[in-house]
């Protein structure tokens, strides 16, 4: 093959491989989700709720621009053709049907532009900006709360699926161990060391363990499917998860935490709402300007003479509103009392929960250490029992009892490890 042809061929091959990686990369990355961090990253990217809040934050920025646009001159086009005919009225202005000439004057024919703009409205504008900025902070904090809830949900389901996976792994390991003993026990039964009935009990236990393996596999598949459903993953492959790393023990977050920050933002919003009530009772001044055609007669010669303009100031002064201002203050006061009650309750609740979880984490460590010690003893007993089976010093039923105890301890270890991780992650959430 000529050198030039080889170069072209290699380039096309490299391009094809690159395109293949680009096309299959996202799909392969999604089918290989194994760690908690990968599921969390996918859930954050696919969550429609988080995308909704991001859109609301963008809308809030647009609302600020819209409020600034409202402060600029507002120009409106107006047009009117209104006829008010007078029928059957004599020259003295008596009788007939129609409006009084002083009111109707024949009609109204208009086509003009009008413009208006608030004057000396800086305090109102600045307060409106602060309200919009406060709304933006509330939306961002709400989005962080939603992300924290999503993280808590995904983490909890991941731990549930991981515990189911560990149980499936343990049942498989025990089944392999029993199958390894099956051939030896057959020889011992044929050699007269054990009775046939004892081997039948062992055989039934092996078959029961096979059923337990299938059940554990189905449980893990169901929990893994739920995890993928919550994270928005489309894959259905049965993969093994990787053990999640335990989070570090951080101190309890105070009033600046994500969950408590919403009450601080609510306090700011209530202050701005009170300022908005005060500003709404200030006199409002606008300049107005219009130019165009306004005539009471439709004849062309009159229309041409009635082109003009007008301008001036429009002042609005609130005088009495039926005590609505005081009622608005009272309503804001009730909201403030409600906010204070929620915040006080949440502060006590979080502190109590943090203390309780800290004690649970400490007790979980002690429980795990105790179970691991018992597991080492149980594993040694199972190994010793396996050796004694070969000599007939241990009955098959006693060996099965040792294996069952070891299996129960493994299940207890899985549950204890899962609960410990749940406790540590719950403490980590309280540090946010």
From TrEMBL:
Gene Ontology terms, MF aspect: efflux transmembrane transporter activity; porin activity
Highest taxon of source: Bacteria
Keywords annotated in UniProt: Cell outer membrane, Membrane, Transmembrane, Transmembrane beta strand
Localization annotation: Cell outer membrane
Main location: membrane
GO cellular component, one term: efflux pump complex
SUPFAM superfamilies, per database record: Outer membrane efflux proteins (OEP) (SSF56954)
Protein name: TolC family protein
Organism annotation: Hymenobacter persicinus
């Amino acid at each position: 093959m000529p050198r030039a042809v080889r170069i072209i061929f290699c380039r096309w091959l490299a391009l094809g491989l690159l395109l293949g990686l680009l096309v299959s990369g996202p799909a392969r990355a999604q089918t290989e989700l194994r760690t908690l961090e990968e599921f969390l990253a996918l859930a954050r990217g696919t969550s429609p709720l988080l995308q909704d809040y991001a859109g609301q934050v963008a809308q809030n920025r647009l609302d600020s621009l819209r409020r600034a646009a409202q402060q600029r001159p507002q120009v409106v086009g107006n047009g009117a053709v209104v006829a008010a005919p007078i029928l059957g009225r004599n020259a003295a202005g008596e009788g007939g049907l129609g409006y009084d000439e002083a009111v109707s004057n024949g009609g109204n024919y208009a086509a003009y532009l009008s413009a208006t703009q608030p004057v000396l409205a800086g305090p109102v504008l600045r307060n409106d900006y602060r309200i919009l900025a406060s709304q933006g902070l509330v939306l961002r904090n709400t989005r962080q709360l939603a992300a924290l809830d999503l993280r808590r949900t995904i983490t909890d389901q991941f731990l549930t699926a991981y515990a189911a996976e560990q149980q499936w792994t343990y049942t498989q390991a025990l089944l392999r161990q029993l199958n390894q003993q099956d051939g030896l026990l057959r020889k011992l039964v044929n050699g007269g060391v054990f009775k046939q009935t004892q081997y039948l009990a062992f055989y039934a236990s092996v078959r029961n363990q096979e059923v337990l393996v299938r059940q554990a596999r189905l449980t893990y598949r169901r929990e893994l499917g739920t995890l993928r459903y919550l994270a928005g993953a489309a894959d259905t492959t049965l993969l093994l998860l990787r053990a999640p790393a335990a989070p570090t023990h951080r101190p309890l977050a105070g009033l600046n935490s994500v969950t408590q920050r919403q009450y601080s933002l609510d306090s700011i919003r209530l202050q701005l709402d009170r300022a908005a009530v005060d500003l709404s009772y200030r006199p409002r001044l606008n300049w107005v300007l219009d130019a165009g055609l306004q005539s009471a007669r439709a004849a062309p010669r009159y229309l041409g003479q009635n082109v003009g303009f007008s301008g001036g100031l429009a002042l609005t002064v609130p005088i009495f509103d039926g005590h609505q201002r005081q009622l608005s203050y009272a309503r804001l006061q009730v909201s403030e009392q409600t906010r204070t009650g929620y915040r006080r309750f949440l502060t006590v609740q979080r502190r109590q929960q943090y203390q309780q979880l800290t004690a649970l984490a400490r007790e979980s460590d002690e429980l795990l250490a105790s179970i691991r010690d018992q597991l080492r003893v149980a594993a040694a007993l199972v190994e010793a029992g396996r050796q004694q089976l070969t000599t007939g010093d241990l009955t098959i039923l006693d060996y099965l009892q040792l294996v069952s105890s070891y299996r129960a301890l493994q299940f207890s270890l899985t549950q204890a490890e899962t609960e410990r991780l749940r406790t540590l992650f719950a403490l980590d959430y309280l540090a946010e």
